[in-house]
Amino acid sequence: MKVGVIMGGISSEREISLQSGNSIIENIDKSKYEVVPIVIDKKEDIVTKVKGIDFALLALHGQFGEDGTVQSVLQTLGIAYSGCGPLSSAACMDKDVTKSLLKAAGIRTAPWINVKSLEEIDYKKIEEMGYPVVVKPTHGGSSVATFIIKDKSGIEEAIKAGFEWDTEVMIEKFIKGDEITCPILAGEMFPVIAIKPSEEFEFFDFTAKYKDGGASEVIVELEENLHKEVEKMALATYKALKCSVYSRVDMIVTKEGVPYILEVNTLPGMTKNSLFPKSAAGRNISFSGLLDLIIKESLKENR
Question: Among this protein's residues, is 225 annotated catalytic?
Fold first, then answer.
C-alpha cells in the first residue's frame, strides 16, 4: 500500500506539522507500506501531490489540515485518509462551535464569548464570567497567541494579537487546575496523561509544549470516581462532536476534582514530545504499532 505522509501546510503550526510528519516517516513500518513524504506548501498541492497514493496519513495541524478542508478534497478524489471526517474536523477546529455543541449535549465546559471584531467586545459579559480570562484565536492551535488576562486593561491588546492569527477570538473563563489529556482510538480511551508545565511557564503554552523539558507529561492513575467521570466525559465529547478513528480530548481538572473540557484535537501531534504516542506506550503499543492501528481503523471508515 502506497502511504503518503501529508505534512507542512500553510497554518501557524507548519513547523510542528513537519516534525510530526518526519517523526511518522521515521517510525512507520516500511516493510508493510511504501512511504511517500508529501510536503504541502500551497493549497493546490493537496490535489497535485497526492496523485498515485492509496492512503493519506495526515500529519497536518491547524487550518487547512485539521479543519476539514483537506479531508473534503481527499474524499472528493476518492483517496482514503486517516482520522476524523470533514464535519467533525471543522467542528473541533472552531472552538466556539465545539463549546456550543458540548453545551447543547450537557457536557461541562468553561463559560465563554466569541468575537469577530473589537466592537463586539462585551466587557459586561466578561465581568460576569469573572477575571482572569483566557484570550485565544477561535481556530488556533498549539496555544499560539493565547494569553491569560487578569483585568480589563489587557483585553483589547490580547484580542488584537489574536486577530493577527485569526478572524475570530474567544474569551473564556480561566479555570485553574491540572491539565490532562485523554487520547481516544476507535471509541476507546487510552491512558490519561497529566501535563505539568515547568515552573518558568504560567500554563501549557507553545514553548512549554515543544521545548524539551518545557513540561512533564506523565501517564496518571486518577482516583477511581474521577477516572470514571473523565472517561465518561471524554467519550461523550468524542460522540457529540462525531469524531472517528482517533482524537485527543483535553481537559482541566480543578483542585476540587471537577473536570472541564478544554478542546478536542482531531489530528493530535505525532512528534517525539507528543502526547498520543506517550499514552499508547502506556498500553505497550509502539509508535509504529499506533500508526498501524490508525491506518487500520481509518480504512474501516465508510466516508
Answer: no
